[in-house]
Amino acid sequence: MAVTLGAMWRAGRDRLAAAGIEGASRDARLLAEFAIGFDALQLSTREREEAPEQATILYNSLIEKRASGMPVARLTNEQWFYGLAFQLSPATLVPRPETEALVDLALAMLGAQEAPRFLDLGTGSGCIGVSIAANLPRVTGVATDLSVEALRVAADNARRHGVADRLKFLEGEWFRALDELHSFDLIVSNPPYIQSDVITGLAREVREHDPLLALDGGTDGLDAYRQLAAEAGRYLRPRGKLAVEIGFDQGEAVSALFEEAGFADVIIEKDLAGLDRIVSGKHL
Ligand SMILES: C[S@@+](CC[C@H](N)C(=O)[O-])C[C@H]1O[C@@H](n2cnc3c(N)ncnc32)[C@H](O)[C@@H]1O
């Protein structure tokens, strides 16, 4: 018997709800759009059309994977961030909405400058660096990662969004990736910041599907911040800034590391949920 597109996606929604998936309706719609190759508007306006057999088979298999805990972004291999679609791979973190605050900070700081330069350390999918470049036509930047595969994806995303000619991608451990002596107006990073022994207790969607390299911040979660705070000054212009994403309970510890390293005007900023999310400081 022929099944309509509307009946198809609603059956998926009910399956996800029965499996206890939060946001079952949203996820079922996103997976239906992906399986059929529609956008949200097309799915809404063409619900009465017959569902193609191949799309139904694909959709049902995606719904079963989602029901077993695989995040939608891992199934579609894509995540929206700062109004842009980012391709993903198993080597990249799924960009999180709270990280968009780092892009806001960068745009506010660099927007008025003539030819600003920034560094995005641990770029992953490239979401931070590509979003900054896409919103500031005069900016140039360098994006690094320890993962070659993540860098490949980030470079693809830069091409996709037309900023590849203004971003350089370099492989290596934090500042050691830099190929020459650079001097930046801003260094941004969302480094791994989860304590090693907390990772096994994280939600399954994170623990099983985000790369460990993107999560593990060492015994106290602060390994990357120690290195970044201690070394960033060498790569910043006078009055340049270092700004990092932090875990909700790391504000004081990371601020102290910034102050010990000689940064001035150290500020902790909160996210929309009212949690500490960014620490920034100025290089004198
Ligand atoms: C939390 S993820 C952030 C990814 C991306 N910037 C974002 O916000 O979605 C941290 C990134 O740092 C990279 N990374 C981890 N350790 C690193 C190191 N020692 N040197 C350079 N990059 C590293 C990981 O591969 C990962 O892409």
TrEMBL record:
Residues 9-76 form the Release factor glutamine methyltransferase N-terminal domain. It is an enzyme of class 2 (transferase). S-adenosyl-L-methionine binds at G122, T123, G124, S125, G126, D145, W174, N190. Substrate binds at N190, P191, P192, Y193. It catalyses: L-glutaminyl-[peptide chain release factor] + S-adenosyl-L-methionine = N(5)-methyl-L-glutaminyl-[peptide chain release factor] + S-adenosyl-L-homocysteine + H(+). InterPro entries: DNA_methylase_N6_adenine_CS, HemK-like, N5-glutamine_MTase, PrmC_N, RF_methyltr_PrmC, SAM-dependent_MTases_sf, Small_mtfrase_dom. Residues 107-196 form the Methyltransferase small domain. The keyword Zinc does not apply. One of its GO terms (biological process) is methylation. It comes from the Bacteria. The keyword Methyltransferase applies. One of its GO terms (molecular function) is peptide chain release factor N(5)-glutamine methyltransferase activity. Its EC number is 2.1.1.297. Keywords: Methyltransferase, S-adenosyl-L-methionine, Transferase. Belongs to the protein N5-glutamine methyltransferase family. PrmC subfamily. Methylates the class 1 translation termination release factors RF1/PrfA and RF2/PrfB on the glutamine residue of the universally conserved GGQ motif. This is Release factor glutamine methyltransferase. It comes from Devosia pacifica. The gene is hemK1.
